[in-house]
Amino acid sequence: MAETGNRDRVSQQVLLANLWLALLSLAVKIWIGWETRSLMLLAESLHTVIDAFSTVLSLIAVLLPYRHNGREVWSHGRLESSLALFLVSLLGFGGLGLASLALTQLTASPSLAHLPRLTVTSAMIQVLALVCMAQVALAIVQNRQAQRFSSLALGTNAQHFLKDAWLLVILLVALLGLWQGYSWLDPLVTIAMVITAGLSCWRVLDIQLPMMLRQIAIAPEAISQIVRQVQGVTHCYQIRSRGVVGRQVWIDLRIVLHPEFHSASNWVKQQIEANLRDRYGPVQVSVEIDSIDSEPIYSQDQPKRNPDREFDGR
Fold it and tell me: Domain 220-312, what architecture?
């Protein structure tokens, strides 16, 4: 229990630090972009919005009250779906607006020689460089914590922050070009940033989307057949699964255990998860044990939960 509490506490602290850094980075990029009238800075801020969105989803996953073994279970309801719709709308309007302004600048001056010169100072470049270094450092710390606690939420969020840091490095190089008077870099980099923002948004939603739609990942009959092969299991029912096979699957099920195996219930659960993992790859299994003539039995590290509420995300 102490280890679980420490894992949750560290995960929350790291994710909150990431969220605050993402908001600070967003404010800095929008301010510098507004001061310099640079479209590419505003376009790159779309990536920061995606990072903040990913961090919020990870926080929801970690803070979700219905978890087992101290590891997060991603369950998406109205709140998460609304956030996803808001993100897509924001990226759609903002990205298309910035891309259209960049194309207007390029078509208005085909020779790229008469584009307005942007005012970029060394102080602005230094501030963005500090933000970039802070993002890289925090992403490295988050990645180490993800490996330490086997946290999918921390690992996914760390990857997004590292990608944004690399894009910020490219942006710094482009700003140095603007500083030297190459104004044509601004609309070209803007279009590239908008395209990569759309791809990054799709990657975030592609990881979350199967859970948001609550698709069945594995046929219950197939899971039941594997579970009933474990010694001591007489029946398997109320099987639920979601996720993507080969990436991560969450399985919730109930079994009836032979009375002679009640003392070995933990071993039975370990065998069930091992067999399912051998067949389907990364899985996270929640097993509730019923006896033949009694109420459901819960082990000390398996608190009572409402599976309907967990899977519906309410």
Answer: 2-Layer Sandwich (3.30)
**Alpha carbon distance 28, 23 (integer Å):** 9
pLDDT of 214 reads 54
- Asked if residue 230 lies in contact with residue 278, where contact means CB atoms within 8 angstroms, the answer is no
Residue 88 scores a pLDDT above 90: no
pLDDT tens-digit profile of 212-226? 455 678 889 999 999
> What is the separation, in whole angstroms, between the first and last Cα of the chain?
25
Domain spans of the chain? Answer: 2-213, 220-312
Cβ burial 7-30 (10 Å sphere, 16+ → b, else e):
bbebbeebbeebbebbeebbebbe
Q: Are 220 and 231 in contact (CB under 8 A)?
A: no
Contact of 275 with 230, CB cutoff 8 Å: yes
For residue 244, pLDDT over 70 is answered with yes
Length of the chain: 314
What's the longest Cα–Cα distance across the chain? 85
